[in-house]
Amino acid sequence: MEKHRAIPEGYMTVGEAAKKMGVTVRTLQYYDKEHLLCPSAASEGGRRLYSDKDLIKLHQILSLKSLGFSLDDIRERLIPLDSPADVAKALSEQAAGIQQKITSLSESLKEIEALKNEVLQMQQVDFKKYADIIVNLQMKNEFYFLIKHFDDKMLDHIHNQFDKDSASAFIKRFSLVLDAFTKLQDQNFLPDSEESLVLAKDFWDIVTEFTGGDMSLLSQLLEIAKPEEANEDWAEKLTLIQSYIQPALEAYFKRAGTNPFA
């Protein structure tokens, strides 16, 4: 650390540095004590002096801290600022971290707004369903809104049958089958075509896996499948189920010589 009789140009006291960067003097003293940001110089009177370069380093520290890194992590991530390339690299990493934080916060905001809408539609306090909706929003389950229609028996059944990973895999399978049905419909395949019957079996296997063969749960699923209570995306899927998948299932059951609803 260099010694100076007076404060030279380009240097500032700890108070001046703290005020300029919007932090407390105690914060700078703590960073100095932890050898995270030591002043570049000191006056002969012992006043610790910070340079403009120190402030750039402090900006790195504050940015990384705002992203949730510990001081030990920050210490390892600090980039030397000895060249324009070093400064640019430090700024690029800060920008990438901030963008990641923005993305994460945007997702959190969407989840909060979605949960708020579900809470208002339920018109009663039900923390069990709130928790399930939050989990499903975090899983990116596009069918999260159906949870508000499930009773305790259905919710308990889902909890017992699926964990987070198996639930994600199940939802993916269901979405893929719906997408495949949509393609067949767009290509003008009839509901009783061979291609449709193959998918009808896959669809029915998914339904029976979800319900575990409990027809009372199946009845509940049929009851909540009402387009007037659905969002736009789900309404489109319900239209597909009722206009195309249901006839395909009827053709599949007829060929198999069975009627699960009898």
Helical stretch tally: 11
Side by side, the strands of the main sheet go 1-3-4-2
Largest β sheet strand count, sense and barrel closure:
4 strands, mixed
Instruction: Give the strand content.
Output: under 5%
Low-confidence stretches: none
Spatial shape: elongated
Based on CA atoms alone, the radius of gyration comes out at 30 Å
Could you spell the SSE succession in H and E letters?
EEHHEEHHHHHHHHH
Q: How confident is the prediction overall: mean pLDDT?
A: 85
End-to-end C-alpha gap:
88 Å
Structural class by SSE content = mainly alpha
Give the proportion of residues in helices. 55-70%
What is the count of β-strands? 4
Tags for this entry?
single chain, about 260 residues, 4-stranded mixed sheet, 11 helices, elongated
Describe, in plain words, how this protein is organized in 3D.
- This protein is mainly alpha-helical.
- 67% of the residues lie in helices and 5% in strands.
- It is built from 11 helices and 4 strands.
- Strands 1-3-4-2 form a 4-stranded mixed beta sheet.
- Strand 3 and strand 4 form a beta hairpin.
- Helix 5 runs antiparallel to helix 6 and helix 9 crosses helix 11.
- The longest helix has 39 residues, at 84-122.
- It starts with a strand and ends in a 6-residue tail after the last helix.
- The relative contact order is 0.06.
- The model has no long low-confidence stretch (mean pLDDT 85).
